[in-house]
Design a protein that fits this description.
Length: 401
């Protein structure tokens, strides 16, 4: 009796050890080859390739990356150098491979302090105006200390193109200067507000600066294929509309106010275009980030989890994963446009308990788990974009009534 129990335990232990190994071997055999690039992936790559053909000197993003360079340096050249360095930085914990001449954190802190009564620039009302008037010396000091930065930013707003070049590692998205865009806009608008508060303000110069700022934020909103930049851009456009009404309402000279009003009303009369409201290019950017992440996983050959990568990489097929991700992203946009918004457990990602699902997951199981686990929801972004368009109409209505 005891011998039978021991024998049974031995068989059970052998099964417990052999079954996972056998399953892993079967998965290896089923995952010997990868897929070819799908039609969607080829379309995405064509989009990226076309964007890369843009003249670098006319790409505002490159100069933005280099905007904090030393006074004697060319921000476009420094931007290119920094982007090249970021392209070489993969999985690592090293700090960003460049330093800033300007103290970005200090500038952000000063802006937040000055605009604290204005909800950091989101609530521009009478209380905000009083607060800014009481801080004119502080504002003047901030603007004077950062004249070069403002000049560089205004030069960037005149460039016709916008295309982000992604770093090799998503760890270094800070180097892309996304968040600093809003701070630069606030700094510029404070400088314009300061000009407008003078009784002898140069109205033509004010109109020119406001128009150029508006063209830039709307061009960025229309051109970007990165979700984070899209979010920041519609905040930029929203703030721009608020600043237009705020500056015009608080101008001291009524004659100058009427002259500037024509320019402001003309700018606000332009509805957001379908390209500005579209999220379709964003799926390409999200796919690019996924491609970067997958490559990082493949390149991870050292560290605490290198052994896990060694086991999982053979059953993660990179191209098949990218193909599936492209399909899922495309369907997410389609679902959003049909007011269904969320894509989770759809026909592309089988989730029911069946042999069909088991069979489907047998090929590229790791890639499918990575792509199908999270639900994709673009509806909130569309709502925010529609809210910006509503704000434009409201600011315009308040000015012409």
């Amino acid at each position: 009796m005891v011998g039978a129990i021991v024998k049974g335990v031995k068989y059970l232990l052998v099964f417990i050890i052999a079954a996972p190994i056998a399953l892993y071997v079967v998965l290896l055999l089923l995952n010997l080859s990868d897929e070819d690039k799908s039609a969607q992936v080829l379309t995405f790559e064509d989009f990226i390739s076309q964007k890369k053909q843009l003249t670098p000197q006319q790409n505002a993003y490159i100069s933005l990356v280099g905007i904090t360079a030393k006074p004697n340096e060319d921000i476009h050249v420094i931007g290119l150098e920094r982007i090249e360095k970021l392209a070489d930085f993969k999985l690592t914990t090293k700090p960003l491979p460049f330093s800033d001449f300007f103290n970005v954190d200090d500038i952000n802190a000063q802006l937040n302090s000055i605009l604290s009564s204005c909800q950091r620039g989101e609530q521009l009302d009478d209380n905000c105006q009083k607060s800014l008037l009481n801080q004119q010396e502080k504002i003047a000091r901030l603007i004077n200390e950062n004249q070069l930065l403002i000049q560089r930013y205004r030069m960037i707003t005149q460039l016709p193109h916008w295309y982000e070049i992604l770093p090799a590692s998503i760890v270094y998205t800070d180097g892309m200067r996304h968040q600093f865009l809003l701070s630069l806009q606030k700094l510029n608008m404070l400088a314009i507000w300061q000009m407008a508060m003078n009784s002898d303000a140069n109205v033509d110069e004010l109109a020119k600066l406001l128009k150029q700022q508006g063209l830039f934020v709307r061009n960025t909103l229309a051109s970007t294929h990165i979700l984070l930049t899209k979010v920041i851009s519609y905040s930029s456009v929203e703030q721009h509309f608020n600043w237009l009404g705020f500056i015009l309402t608080n101008m001291l000279d009524s004659m100058s106010q009427q002259v500037l009003k024509k320019s402001v009303v003309n700018a606000l009369s332009q509805p957001l275009t379908p390209q500005e409201l579209s999220l379709e290019p964003i799926i390409i950017g999200e796919w690019q980030f996924a491609q970067s992440f997958h490559q990082q996983m493949i390149d991870e050959t050292e560290g605490d989890y290198a052994w896990l990568n060694f086991l999982l990489m053979p059953i993660l097929k990179q191209q098949a994963t990218l193909n599936l991700h492209a399909k899922v992203m495309e369907q997410a946009i389609t679902s959003q446009s049909e007011e269904r918004g969320r894509v989770s457990g759809n026909q592309l990602c089988l989730s029911d308990k069946s042999w069909q699902t088991l069979s489907w997951f047998s090929y590229n199981p790791i890639g499918k788990l990575m792509i199908c686990a999270p639900g994709l929801d673009f509806s909130s972004y569309t709502e925010n974009l529609n809210a910006v368009e509503s704000l434009r109409k409201n600011v315009l209505a308040n000015l012409i009534r």
